[in-house]
């Protein structure tokens, strides 16, 4: 019988930084269409794991397989081209360009293989991509800011813009590193609603998050990372009731 449509398999991954074992024995299977949350205290290795998946860091051993293709050894832009997009913990945007242009650039980069600086000159002639970018901005509730300079947006709005920059790539897998970090409760709730909308479209997502409200309202599955190891995984209810998790994370004084 087919395995529950595993789209991403992190297989026996280890990552060492000198003497520090930042990731140990990580085995993670992400199923198609699911929202899989990775939680854990500060320094647990969550961002390191995401960086290994997107090719920013090479694992010390083990490999990452996406849709049958081995990602390990590939460059971040090649992995992105295979259908993995990521919202970073610190937004990576073009601060001097308009919001609309920021959202158009990833679509152009995808179409043309890679982003080239001379694309900036042709942005305004790309009417098809412009229309799609406007559609994405409507989706994330930012259409009224499309002509604003991206650097002038609030932190929450930058996050929304970055989400639109990912969605326009129509990724098969969307990775989000603390998508609500630094947001007010109101912005957090708006983002949760937005992520639910994306979920309803069947997009597979991996969310790294320490806000329990976000995790429990979105995740189908949760893996708990502590000191570089997965100490528990399962449904939100299974994880919530796990004493090891409460000790390592939920009841701790972290974050
Ligand atoms: P989290 O995202 O869960 O807070 P990180 O993945 O950022 O944790 O970090 C896990 C551990 O690895 C931490 O102890 C951190 O200091 C260390 N670490 C992360 N990146 C590097 C790096 N590039 N070089 C050395 N140590 C690192
Ligand atoms: Mg982190």
From TrEMBL:
Single GO MF descriptor: L-isoleucine transmembrane transporter activity
GO biological process: D-alanine transmembrane transport; L-alanine transport; L-isoleucine import across plasma membrane; L-valine import across plasma membrane
All copies of domain ABC transporter, residue ranges: 8-252
GO annotation, cellular component aspect: plasma membrane
Source organism superkingdom: Bacteria
Alphabetical list of InterPro entries matching this protein: AAA+_ATPase (IPR003593), ABC_AA/LPS_Transport (IPR051120), ABC_transporter-like_ATP-bd (IPR003439), BCA_ABC_TP_C (IPR032823), P-loop_NTPase (IPR027417)
SMART domains on file: AAA
Keywords for this protein: ATP-binding, Nucleotide-binding, Transport
Name of the molecule in the record: Branched-chain amino acid ABC transporter substrate-binding protein
Species the sequence originates in: Devosia chinhatensis
């Amino acid at each position: 019988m087919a395995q529950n449509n595993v789209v991403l398999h992190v297989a026996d991954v280890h990552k060492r930084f000198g003497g520090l074992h930042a990731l140990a024995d990580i085995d993670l299977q992400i199923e198609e269409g699911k929202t899989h949350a990775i939680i854990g205290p500060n320094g647990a290795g969550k961002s390191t794991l995401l960086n290994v998946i997107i090719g920013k860091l090479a694992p010390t051993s083990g490999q990452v397989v996406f849709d049958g293709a081995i990602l390990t050894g590939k460059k971040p832009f090649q992995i992105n081209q295979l259908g993995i997009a990521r919202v970073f913990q610190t937004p990576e945007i073009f601060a001097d360009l308009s919001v609309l242009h920021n959202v158009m650039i990833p679509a152009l980069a995808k179409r043309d293989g890679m982003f080239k600086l001379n694309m900036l000159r042709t942005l305004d002639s790309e009417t098809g991509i412009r229309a799609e970018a406007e559609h994405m901005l409507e989706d994330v509730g930012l259409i009224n800011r499309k002509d604003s300079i991206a650097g002038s947006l609030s932190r929450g709005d930058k996050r929304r813009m970055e989400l639109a920059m990912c969605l326009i790539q129509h990724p098969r897998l969307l990775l989000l590193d603390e998508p609500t970090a630094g947001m007010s409760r109101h912005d957090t709730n708006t983002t949760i609603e937005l992520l639910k909308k994306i979920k309803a479209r069947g997009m597979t997502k991996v969310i790294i998050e320490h806000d329990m409200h976000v995790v429990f309202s979105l995740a189908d599955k949760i893996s708990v990372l502590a000191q570089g190891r997965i100490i528990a995984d399962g449904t939100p209810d299974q994880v919530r009731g796990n004493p090891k998790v409460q000790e390592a994370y939920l009841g701790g004084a972290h974050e």
